[in-house]
């Protein structure tokens, strides 16, 4: 692969924050070995990117050599110190890593990278409640850190604390109103919490996610399922029932269409479409509503 | 309790699934194409999720889809597997227990299988799995001697072959299917490749 192509690929992966570590190591290692002298100042950010990818692939040899180059060039840098800490984490030398991060924080208490690494260590050690506590404290100070809010929502979901996960996602939706993934995840959390009110909310957020991205299959299925459940609830009025049966039918037809449009003919798709149609007719029959099958 | 036999096909796909997502928890369903009896023969598996395992909608959707597919292909859901993101902790999570309970309602010798990440390295002599069965209203560790993996050496070598040929990337789980619905979560292509590798002499797998 040409040097420029390789460099551009690495840049793209860096900018989009992809974690395709094996590929980064493949391309990066070749680029460093063959073309280091011709990369100019780009080389340093590439060393950093390749080092982190190397840690992800247990390539300590490669990580170590990248780190040496960076240490030589930037001897007192906190950024490089953090990379050294990450290498210690990869080797599961968590105490040593923590000492390193603490020394960074002594020098610079506002260093968010070091704080986040400490929280990552807690997560790696399975200390979820402590990680959650530290992350909450962090967010009190750095309330705009999207990555941290998302990490916290993940931690709460793992701990089955859906109400708090929903709160984190609400923060994310407020600051990222066009992000269909947050809407869809919020819908999933509300659906999981259960109960009529939450199911109706879930349906609304799945619908919102679809407005933002009409190809989001999870949102489509989510809309179908939440609308079906609301329609089947004994507590709703006839009108609400009718409306939700319509929403569910619409979602079902969109799902069938999506599978047909992608021209997928294998067994599993036939069963997906069949399963959905079967379920929709059941809901419709129970509520005496005519479904116009699109 | 009854014996459980784990086929090469099921084991290989579970292993590949866990390897494909080393930083996440993954889960899936264990299937059997044998008739119900005292012994459980796990002949295949369906990899399900690699994110948000404890959220309900996609799990429910996947269970329904797999159910429908099983009834069309004369298979039954006989168990559930999970590999935790945290390698040092292979104990069943509340979500694993919940899903296993649901499966137990339909299949009274259902198994819960946890993959032990710490034993997933090349050359490990012991299968990286821990099995649980329903006993006295709770999930208890199964006696290792009632778990059978026929042709263990051959199974290991087949898994290695899949990695060296790059075929492990063929594995599709339900999550990946939702990201791109042209991908086949029943893994017909990968199944065929694995069946090819299984020696013709061993008709049982």
TrEMBL record, chain A:
<feature type="repeat" description="TPR">
    <location>
        <begin position="146"/>
        <end position="179"/>
    </location>
</feature>
<keyword id="KW-0802">TPR repeat</keyword>
<dbReference type="InterPro" id="IPR055217">
    <property type="entry name" value="TPR_EMC2"/>
</dbReference>
<dbReference type="InterPro" id="IPR011990">
    <property type="entry name" value="TPR-like_helical_dom_sf"/>
</dbReference>
<dbReference type="GO" id="GO:0072546">
    <property type="term" value="C:EMC complex"/>
</dbReference>
<comment type="function">
    <text>Part of the endoplasmic reticulum membrane protein complex (EMC) that enables the energy-independent insertion into endoplasmic reticulum membranes of newly synthesized membrane proteins.</text>
</comment>
<dbReference type="InterPro" id="IPR039856">
    <property type="entry name" value="EMC2-like"/>
</dbReference>
<feature type="domain" description="EMC2 TPR-like">
    <location>
        <begin position="81"/>
        <end position="190"/>
    </location>
</feature>
<comment type="similarity">
    <text>Belongs to the EMC2 family.</text>
</comment>
<keyword id="KW-0256">Endoplasmic reticulum</keyword>
<keyword id="KW-0472">Membrane</keyword>
<dbReference type="Pfam" id="PF22890">
    <property type="entry name" value="TPR_EMC2"/>
</dbReference>
<comment type="subunit">
    <text>Component of the ER membrane protein complex (EMC).</text>
</comment>
<protein>
    <recommendedName>
        <fullName>ER membrane protein complex subunit 2</fullName>
    </recommendedName>
</protein>
<dbReference type="InterPro" id="IPR019734">
    <property type="entry name" value="TPR_rpt"/>
</dbReference>
<keyword id="KW-0677">Repeat</keyword>
Automatic annotation (TrEMBL), chain B:
<feature type="domain" description="MPN">
    <location>
        <begin position="4"/>
        <end position="138"/>
    </location>
</feature>
<comment type="similarity">
    <text>Belongs to the EMC8/EMC9 family.</text>
</comment>
<protein>
    <submittedName>
        <fullName>ER membrane protein complex subunit 9</fullName>
    </submittedName>
</protein>
<dbReference type="GO" id="GO:0072546">
    <property type="term" value="C:EMC complex"/>
</dbReference>
<dbReference type="InterPro" id="IPR005366">
    <property type="entry name" value="EMC8/9"/>
</dbReference>
<dbReference type="Pfam" id="PF03665">
    <property type="entry name" value="UPF0172"/>
</dbReference>
<comment type="subunit">
    <text>Component of the ER membrane protein complex (EMC). EMC8 and EMC9 are mutually exclusive subunits of the EMC complex.</text>
</comment>
<dbReference type="InterPro" id="IPR037518">
    <property type="entry name" value="MPN"/>
</dbReference>
């Amino acid at each position: 692969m040409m040097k420029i192509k390789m460099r551009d690929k690495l840049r793209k992966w860096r900018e989009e924050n992809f974690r395709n570590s094996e590929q980064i190591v493949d391309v990066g290692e070749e680029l460093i070995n063959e073309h280091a002298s011709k990369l100019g100042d780009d080389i340093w950010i590439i060393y950093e990117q390749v080092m982190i990818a190397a840690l992800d692939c247990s390539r300590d040899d490669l990580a170590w050599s990248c780190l040496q180059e960076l240490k030589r060039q930037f001897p007192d840098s906190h950024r490089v110190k953090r990379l050294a800490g990450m290498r210690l984490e990869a080797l599961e030398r968590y105490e040593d890593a923590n000492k390193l991060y603490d020394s960074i924080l002594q020098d610079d208490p506002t260093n968010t990278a070091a704080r986040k690494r400490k929280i990552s260590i807690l997560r790696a050690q399975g200390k979820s409640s402590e990680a959650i506590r530290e992350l909450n404290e962090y967010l009190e100070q750095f309330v705009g850190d999207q990555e941290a809010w998302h990490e916290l929502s993940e931690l709460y979901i793992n701990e089955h604390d859906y109400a708090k996960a929903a709160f984190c996602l609400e923060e994310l939706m407020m600051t990222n109103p066009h992000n269909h993934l947050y809407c869809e995840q919020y819908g999933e959390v509300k659906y999981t919490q259960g109960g009529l009110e939450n199911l109706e909310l879930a349906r609304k957020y799945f619908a919102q996610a679809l407005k933002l991205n009409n190809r989001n299959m999870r949102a489509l299925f989510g809309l179908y399922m939440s609308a079906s459940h609301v329609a089947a609830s004994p507590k709703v009025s006839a009108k609400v029932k009718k409306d939700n049966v319509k929403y569910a039918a619409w979602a079902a037809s969109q799902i069938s269409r999506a599978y047909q449009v992608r021209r997928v003919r294998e067994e599993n798709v036939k069963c997906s479409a069949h399963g959905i149609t079967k379920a929709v007719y059941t809901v419709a029959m129970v509520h005496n509503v005519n479904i116009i099958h699109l | 309790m009854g014996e459980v036999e784990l086929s090469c096909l099921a084991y290989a796909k579970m292993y590949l699934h866990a390897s494909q997502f080393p930083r996440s928890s993954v889960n899936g369903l264990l299937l059997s194409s044998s008739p119900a009896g005292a012994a459980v023969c796990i002949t295949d598996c369906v990899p399900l999720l690699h994110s948000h395992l404890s959220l309900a909608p996609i799990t429910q959707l996947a269970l329904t889809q797999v159910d429908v597919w099983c009834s069309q292909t004369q298979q039954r859901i006989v168990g559930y597997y999970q590999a935790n993101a945290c390698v040092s902790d292979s104990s069943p999570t509340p979500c694993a227990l919940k899903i296993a309970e649901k499966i137990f309602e339909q299949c009274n010798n259902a198994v819960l299988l946890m993959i032990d990440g710490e034993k997933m390295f090349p050359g490990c002599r012991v299968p990286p799995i821990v099995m649980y069965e329903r006993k006295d209203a709770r999930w208890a560790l199964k006696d290792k001697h009632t778990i059978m993996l026929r042709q263990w050496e051959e199974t290991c070598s087949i898994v290695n072959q899949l990695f060296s040929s790059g075929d492990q990337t063929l594995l599709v789980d339900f999550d990946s299917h939702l990201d791109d619905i042209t991908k086949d979560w029943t893994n017909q292509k990968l199944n065929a490749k694995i069946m090819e590798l299984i020696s013709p002499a061993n008709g049982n797998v």
